[in-house]
């Protein structure tokens, strides 16, 4: 079974691909996808989000989409480190 992919374009022109399930971890992105009815292989423009921020959002969403493979305690620890990381 193939997973639907969403292609995101940041305000500074960077492209990112993510599984739909990963993208829908973000409430804002999920609502935006519903509003514009993005299809597979469409570019979904995020005009107010830079490439640096979008890469962090996608990383965070990937971690939370795969919650079955990590304990809740480890996920909370990862979240705390992620927020404090000085990127």
UniProtKB/TrEMBL annotation:
Top-level taxonomic group: Eukaryota
Short name of one Pfam family: Skp1_POZ
Keyword Repressor: no
Alphabetical UniProt keywords: Ubl conjugation pathway
Pathway: Protein modification; protein ubiquitination
Record keyword Zinc-finger present: no
The SKP1 component POZ domain, residue ranges: 4-65
Gene3D superfamilies (UniProt xref): Potassium Channel Kv1.1, Chain A
A biological-process GO annotation: jasmonic acid mediated signaling pathway
Family recorded in the similarity comment: Belongs to the SKP1 family.
Protein name, entry field: SKP1 component POZ domain-containing protein
Native organism taxonomy: Eukaryota, Viridiplantae, Streptophyta, Embryophyta, Tracheophyta
């Amino acid at each position: 079974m193939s997973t639907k992919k969403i292609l995101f374009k940041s305000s500074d022109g960077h492209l990112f691909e993510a599984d739909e399930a990963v993208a829908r971890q973000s409430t804002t992105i999920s609502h935006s996808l519903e509003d514009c009815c993005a299809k597979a292989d469409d570019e979904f423009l995020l005009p107010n989000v830079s490439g640096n921020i979008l890469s962090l959002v996608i990383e965070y969403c990937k971690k939370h989409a795969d919650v079955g493979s990590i304990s809740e305690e480890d996920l909370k620890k990862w979240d705390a480190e992620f927020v404090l990381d000085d990127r």
